[in-house]
Design a protein that fits this description.
The complex is a heterodimer of chains A (about 160) and B (about 850). Chain A is an alpha+beta fold and about 160 residues long. Chain A contains five helices and five strands. Classes of the chains: A alpha+beta (about 160), B alpha+beta (about 850). Chains A and B meet through helix 2, helix 3, helix 4 and helix 5 of A and helix 1 and helix 18 of B.
């Protein structure tokens, strides 16, 4: 297929790319921009390892054509660290054992970011439901909840202290 | 016993956590090389066929295709076991399962390679296929492997003690058939391999090969590559990048790993091949579906008198780990409890399905499901509490079991008491509302096999440590981090032994050029064996530092204590023990007055400022002093299991022995919906004796992950077969549980402090899985009074069991099969053969004898 030129905004920077019209966002991110943090774990958009934020909404980048993403703000796992430091959720994941092999971790963190942006004080059920779009084979999800809860609690404490 | 550790025993974030949470860490498919080509594999559409010819010319001519490789390009067979070299990288003369690897195209893009696959023409002669193991064992012709008569890969027959007399002495006997259906690892990262040849400047021709692969066993990969490519091992470098899970699915050499190298050689360019999720399912090497005919006898006082097990494993099309799997089923059957009389007959059978291999818990899991369920049944028969019956059969270590397994540390009694206490077992069992129940079960596993796969006198692990002028401690270990935390364990042990900070330790792992051999991350051997090797290496380099520091401090090396990034003189002569005992009081670290980067000048300054013997030096000062004496400091440590742990001499005795075993006791609380058959697990209390928890966060994570995987096998996971075709090669169809289906698991760490483990540690990653399945089965019985003998306990099976119990109309969904008394493996949808479609089945296949009734799904 003949390639066309598109403009993608990823992690706050503009990129001009030559892509085939059927190129999936996941493949363009991984092979053309070398943002290999988003992963491929399945053939049928069932595992969530490719989750990125598009205009703040968690979406599976294996279901999205890169050509459709012009003009949108794409955030990958590589865009989550804040000024060279781990974001709270990233540090908490490490401290609480939320990541074992780490393959599903970028996808989960993007989903968690999207959840907490929408709902800063989610219930147990809210968290479980939100995470159900990402599959993990190592952790059984338990320590992930503890990591997420610790971030929520820290936020809550900071807000109370600020008042 | 001293428990005053600085680093081990403290919850520690994995040292590679930031790589994983930022996405910066590289897994094999994240790697690329200039000029790299992508490989795609053509798979067999038939379960059993002879290859008459392969025509690749049209594929080779497609623009963008650089090379096509077929079986003839790699005629040397290989396999993970020395007795099982029965597979080829690409099918050589026959294909033996739907999904078998036939040819590989490498091209400049994935889409071109895929197109080219369609241009390859293979002429097959279809052969009769075997799908059911009990039927396959009766085969008289068209054997899957010509030298395996009746398609039996291997069978074993063991008798320990006097089982006949044992059964005669029993007051109650239970006898039943159990069926465990097939499950697979489904690690989140698909298999991936990148292979690249260098050019040798002396010959001008193709030289060394470097392979990056998602593997648990880089050294076995190096060995098999050498065999098949006919290259010396020292010309092959295997590097393990981050691995996204293995669970045994990457504990042997998977064909794509060799195919990538063959293709790179032919294409004269780097080649990367990554399996799709469907291909991962076909690659499989998971847990075989198993038929267990089990008979157990007990006395009224609860003592088990005899056990008889006949096990048939459906091994699929190749040997893989099969011989080991069928032996584990027998070997660890008894050694959990004190059972004096055991008869074991095990059959590993070949069928035309993807090969089964090693999966978390290996051959011990399905037999444990049968045994713990049957023990529960016998407890009911003698009106004894299920926790109590287990208390009556505990081993009294140190001891040797009837099948020659040495048991030293044995935390099972404490594990049982912990879960009984925390689940409120005594108060709540029998008191829960209708449809809700509690079940208990136990399991165990090896902390590494005492006898290695390739028999030799070589240590199973060797670790090197280098400490240089910069004060950094570099540990070179062959141990493969696959997400279980082995890199962190390595750093923790080195830092604890040297009394230095964790930040100072850098781990370089699993690169066959840099790191000494470790035989691999399987059988949960790494903490025990590579950990011990690390400890020995650290102690060796510590002695060099102590000798130099002692000279500086004017004392004996035995008086020195390594702690808190410093070396201190203890008050009195304390003996060799000081090497592993940290300081009595912790004090604030003294500022050395020297910036790290100035160490080079510092030692000269130190010499000039020498004011005579001191009481304390910083770690760096001590290191510099030692380097002045010795040059760069290096230490090496090795571990080989002791002879006393290697087991008996009977046929097959090599599998089962271990230097130490972990133990698990679990209580599961479930609800069963009697209208829909759905089972909900509310909570699992899981106590695991890991010897000592070097990193409690990791240990708890492994226990939870193990229990979760066991729950998956118990409730939802099942590979569904029809005419040798896998019907559900996708994560959702395979029903890997999401967060909504996953219960809270309460991990309880029990520490029996093993006498031979590093700091007393044993394994914590596999031993828990097996107990979860019978714990849930027993809880279902407690809830609704049905004993399921077939896993997974899906809603349709539970419902069928309830209807059978209540004598209601049998459920067509399970084709009238009562899962409390399963007879054979069910083929979903029935065989197509008798309708004139589908692969031809061998003459004895039931579908050729009678038309299948029902079968509508």
């Amino acid at each position: 297929m003949k390639k066309e030129l598109i403009q993608l905004r990823v992690n706050g920077r503009e990129h001009e790319l030559a892509i085939e019209p059927n190129a999936l966002l996941l493949d363009v991110l991984r092979t053309q921009l070398q943002f290999t943090g988003s992963k491929r774990g399945c053939d049928d958009s069932s595992c969530g390892a490719c989750t990125v934020l598009i205009d703040g909404v968690a979406m599976m980048s294996c279901t999205v054509l890169s050509a459709n993403c012009e003009g949108q703000e794409i955030t990958t796992i590589e865009g989550v660290t804040e000024h060279g430091s781990l974001a709270a959720i990233q540090k908490a994941y490490g401290d609480w054992g939320g990541a074992q092999c780490g393959y599903c971790t970028p996808g989960f963190i993007m989903t968690v970011r999207s959840l907490l942006a929408e709902n800063p004080d989610p219930s147990e059920n809210d968290i479980r439901n939100a995470l159900s779009s990402n599959l993990c084979r190592c952790t059984g999800y338990n320590q992930m909840y503890e990591a997420i809860r610790s971030v929520i609690d820290a936020e809550r404490k900071a807000l109370v202290a600020a008042k | 016993m001293n428990n005053n550790f600085s680093i081990i025993g403290k919850p520690t974030a994995m040292i590679d956590a930031a790589e994983k949470t930022t996405g910066a860490g590289k897994y094999t498919d994240d790697l690329s090389l200039p000029g790299m080509l992508i490989g795609k594999i053509l798979h067999s559409p038939y379960p059993h066929a002879r290859i008459k010819s392969i025509e690749t010319r049209r594929a080779e001519q497609l623009a963008g295709v650089v090379a096509v490789v077929i079986g003839k390009d790699a005629p040397t067979p290989f396999g993970i076991l020395p007795v099982g070299h029965d597979e080829h990288a690409l099918a050589f003369d026959k294909v033996r399962y739907v999904g078998d690897n036939v040819a590989c195209v490498v091209a400049t893009s994935e889409s071109i390679a895929e197109k080219a696959l369609e241009l390859i023409h293979v002429d097959y002669e279809v052969l009769p296929a075997y799908f059911d193991p009990e039927e396959s064992m009766k085969a008289q012709s068209d054997f899957i492997h010509a030298n395996k008569l009746q398609n039996i890969e291997k069978d074993y027959h063991h008798v320990f003690g006097d089982p006949e007399r044992g059964f005669a002495e029993a007051d109650e006997i239970a006898e039943a058939r159990f069926i465990a259906n097939e499950v697979t690892h489904a690690a989140m990262e698909p298999h991936s391999t990148l292979a690249s040849f260098e050019i040798d400047p002396r010959t001008g021709k193709s030289g060394r090969l470097t392979v990056w692969s998602s593997t648990q066993v880089p050294y076995y990969l190096q060995h098999k590559l050498s065999l098949v490519l006919e290259m010396p091992m020292q010309q092959i470098r295997v590097i393990k990048p981050l691995v996204g899970g293995g669970f045994g699915g990457k504990s042997e050499v998977i064909p794509l790993e060799i195919i990538a190298a063959i293709a790179a050689r032919k294409a004269k360019a780097p080649v990367k091949i990554t399996y799709t999720r469907e291909e991962v399912f076909w690659a499989h090497r998971g847990r075989p579906r198993t038929i267990i005919d089990l008979k157990t006898g007990v006395k009224r006082d609860g003592r088990i008198t005899a056990v008889k097990a006949r096990v048939i494993q459906d091994g699929g099309a190749y040997c893989s780990y099969g011989v080991v799997t069928i032996l584990y089923s027998g070997a660890l059957l008894g050694a959990l409890y004190d059972i004096p009389n055991i008869q074991y007959d095990g059959y590993r059978v070949l069928t035309n399905k993807p090969a089964c291999g090693a999966m978390r818990g290996h051959g011990t899991v399905n037999v444990r499901f049968a045994f713990e369920s049957q023990l529960d049944e016998l407890a009911t028969k003698i009106s004894m509490d299920p926790a109590e019956i287990r208390r009556h059969n505990l081993l009294k270590p140190p001891c040797i079991t009837v099948n020659s397994l040495r048991v030293q540390s044995y935390g099972l009694p404490e594990c049982i008491e912990e879960v009984v206490k925390r689940s409120g077992w005594n108060d709540r069992k029998g008191e829960l509302p209708k449809g809700r129940g509690l079940g208990i079960a136990c399991s165990h596993y090896v902390s590494g096999a005492a006898n290695s796969i390739i028999r030799s006198d070589m240590p199973h692990s060797t670790v090197n440590i280098k400490i240089d002028r910069d004060g950094g401690v570099v540990v070179y270990t062959g141990a493969s981090e696959i997400g279980q935390g082995s890199d962190t364990m390595t750093a923790q042990i080195a830092a604890e032994a040297l009394g230095c900070s964790l930040e100072r330790v850098h781990v370089i792992a699993a690169d066959t050029d840099l790191t000494p051999i470790d035989i691999g991350s399987y059988s949960s051997r790494v903490t025990f064996m590579a950990g011990n090797a690390t400890l020995r290496a650290a102690n060796e380099v510590k002695m060099l530092i102590a000798a130099a520091a002692a000279k500086k401090m004017g004392c004996a090396p035995e008086e020195l204590i390594f702690h808190d990034d410093a070396v201190r003189r203890s008050g009195a002569h304390v003996g060799a023990d000081a090497f592993v005992r940290p300081a009595e009081q912790s004090s604030a670290p003294t500022v050395s007055g020297r910036v790290e980067g100035q160490i080079l000048r510092g030692s000269l300054q130190q010499k000039r400022k020498d004011e005579g013997p001191k009481d304390k030096m910083t770690f760096e000062e001590a290191v510099v002093a030692a380097i002045d004496f010795h040059g760069a400091l290096t230490g090496t440590g090795s571990y080989a299991p002791p002879a006393e742990a290697r087991g008996g001499k009977h046929k097959g005795a090599g599998v089962g022995p271990s230097p130490a075993y972990s133990y698990s006791a679990q209580v599961a609380e479930v609800s069963v919906d009697e209208e829909t058959g759905e089972v909900t697990v509310h909570r699992v209390w899981a106590a695991h004796d890991c010897g000592r928890a070097l990193n409690p966060v990791s240990v708890e994570g492994q226990i939870i992950g193990s229990v979760w995987m066991g729950m998956g096998q118990a409730l939802t996971e099942e590979m569904v077969w029809k005419d040798g075709m896998l019907m559900n090669p996708g994560l959702l169809e395979y029903r890997s549980p999401s967060s909504i289906e996953s219960p809270t698991v309460e991990p309880i760490i029990v520490e029996s402090i093993d006498p031979e483990g590093p700091f007393g540690a044993k394994e914590c990653s596999e031993g828990s899985l097996a107990a979860t399945i019978p714990a849930i089965a027993n809880a279902i019985y407690d809830a609704v009074g049905v004993r399921l003998h077939e896993s997974p306990f899906t809603p349709e099976r539970v419902l069928a069991a309830l209807r059978a119990k209540n004598k209601n109309k049998a459920l067509n969904l399970t084709e009238g099969i009562d899962p409390t008394a399963p007879a054979r493996f069910r083929e979903h949808g029935g065989a197509l053969w008798h309708k004139g479609k589908g692969p031809e089945r061998h003459p004895l296949d039931p579908s050729r004898i009678a038309t299948q009734p029902g079968g509508a799904d």
